[in-house]
Amino acid sequence: MGLGRAIKQGMGGGEVRTGGGDRWWKPGPAPIGYAIGPPIPEPAVPDINVGLLKRLCETPGVPGREERVRALIEKEVKGLFDSVTTDPMGSLICRRGPRGA
Predict the structure, then answer these.
(1) To bridge 81 with a disulfide, which of 26, 37, 69, 94 should be the other Cys (CB 3.0-4.6 Å)?
(2) pTM, whole model, 2 decimals?
(3) pLDDT tens digits, residue range 73-89?
(4) Where are the domains of the chain?
(5) Angle at CA of residue 27, ends 22 and 28, nearest 5°
(6) Do the Cβ atoms of 22 and 42 come closer than 8 Å?
(7) Given the DSSP bridges, would you call strands 24-25 and 83-86 parallel, antiparallel or unpaired?
(8) Alpha-carbon span 71 to 75, nearest angstrom
(9) CB contact at 8 A, 41 and 33
(10) Rounded Cα gap, residues 14 and 6, in angstroms
């Protein structure tokens, strides 16, 4: 990036005349829509199961009475794990063994 472009985008001090016109750029924050440096890729966001999220939010599950939430999760993970059990405290334990390469 040339110095003129850097100052145009707010990275330097003073005034710089950029070629190709009679525009003067003063230092300051970069105008909206200007990028300083190469574009930053958007982080990869996995697909969100909005229906499941909605059901989880709408399922009653106050502390100590999470049976309905646990039942919903058990139903959703069916077939994804080798074993799904509930411990004496009510925690859902999902186990999956190693897979061959």
Answers:
(1) 94
(2) 0.52
(3) 999 999 999 999 999 99
(4) 1-37, 50-95
(5) 125
(6) no
(7) unpaired
(8) 6
(9) no
(10) 11
